[in-house]
Amino acid sequence: MYNNINLVQGTIEEKRRPKKKRTFLQKLVRSLLFILIAYFIISFFLSSKIIFSQETLGAAISKLPVISQLRSILGANDVLSGKDENRLNLLIMGIGGTGHEGALLTDTMMLASVDLSTNQASLISIPRDLLVKIPNNGWQRINHASAYGDLNNYPGGGSALAAKTVEDTFGVPIDYYLRLDFSGFTSMIDDLGGIDVSVDRFFVDNQYPTEDYKVMTISFNQGIEHMDGQRALQFARSRHGDNGEGSDFARAKRQQKILFAVKDKILNWKTLANPNRVYNIYNNITKNIQTNIKPGQLSELMNLAKTIDFGAMEHYVIDDSPGGLLKSIITDDGAQILAPKSGDFEELRDFVKNIFVVKEIINQHVSVVIANGTTI
Fold first, then answer.
1. Which residues does the UniProt record annotate as the domain Cell envelope-related transcriptional attenuator (predicted)?
2. Nearest Cα to 254, choosing from 189, 203, 215?
């Protein structure tokens, strides 16, 4: 099965596309954003009802006329997908972006799931070298799906094809997907003024790739470090660290730390009260995120997030460790891939489908880490 597969080697290059002109809708959204920021700040400081009432800030803001008008325009309170199945699945992806080797290949792929009956949440990291069947593209590493989708104009783009691939591979519906360009991610962290990240242990990576396709040495000391965008990207993407930081498990945990740190900084009052900073963040998001989440579904997702104990969220990494579900294989072409130990994907599908039901079985097969008490 694995010896006759023609794996794509090297970098999948981006096609050159003409720059898109800013549409009327984009101009409208920009205008609405500035109006919203100005209206919010003026209303907040001048309205005694908001400042002195006992209701929460979020509830008070939601009653502002401009918010109601925006909800009407954007179609607020759209019904969330997944409610009929009592489970919501969100595929989170990260790509290197322009200037990085394999710009469109997914460097990070995580499946976030929420049990809507218990509000339990889990996060499953999917290894980039897992060999899967990508629709219309044959057997390839799963991190190629996003690139094929973009380059071949798949409906919905690379994110949609990656979501379809994960659906077919693991047998669960992907309700929402979100793909982030790491190039924009670094800019967003810089716009935030940097983030504070807890580094668990000292490590050195002397094979970190540079933009000119060479390597450099990076290192991190144990403790709290204030990171700018580039430093945070190095921390998240490092793959060859020593002292226990060279595994996919360690890398996935670092990426989770970065995401939580960004979330904390975005929701900080000093950030929300700074119009220029808010606009820069918005601009980065609209330029560098590909998603199928509708604007009207954002409020519903935020309401759902409030009910979840993210401090108890369990993070699973599917790997080829002695007790893992995967095995490492070298093909006749010399390519290293990961494949199911059992020979098919049934065991993996059972694992993903029953993530909230059979923990006692799952914990015997995969690595698990509990999030460090950070909440959203």
1. 106-266
2. 203
* Residues 64 and 113 grouped into a single domain: no
In a domain, 18, yes or no: no
CATH number at residue 236: 3.40.630.190
What total of structural domains would you count in the chain? 2
H or E stretch including 276?
helix 275-288
Judge contact between 50 and 83, C-beta under 8 A.
no
Q: Count Cβ neighbours within 10 Å for each residue of 115-128 and write b for 16 or more, e otherwise.
A: bbeeebbbbbbbbb
Q: What is the pLDDT of residues 180-238, one digit of tens each?
A: 887 777 888 998 899 999 999 999 999 998 877 789 999 999 999 999 999 998 998 89
Pair 69, 95 in one domain: no
Q: What is the pLDDT of residues 255-265, one digit of tens each?
A: 878 878 887 88
Residue 277 structural domain: 87-376
Sort strands 87-95 and 176-181 into parallel, antiparallel or unpaired. Answer: parallel
Q: Which of 339, 308, 307 is closest to 325 using CA atoms?
A: 339
**What is the C-alpha to C-alpha distance for residues 335 and 141, in angstroms, rounded to an integer?**
10
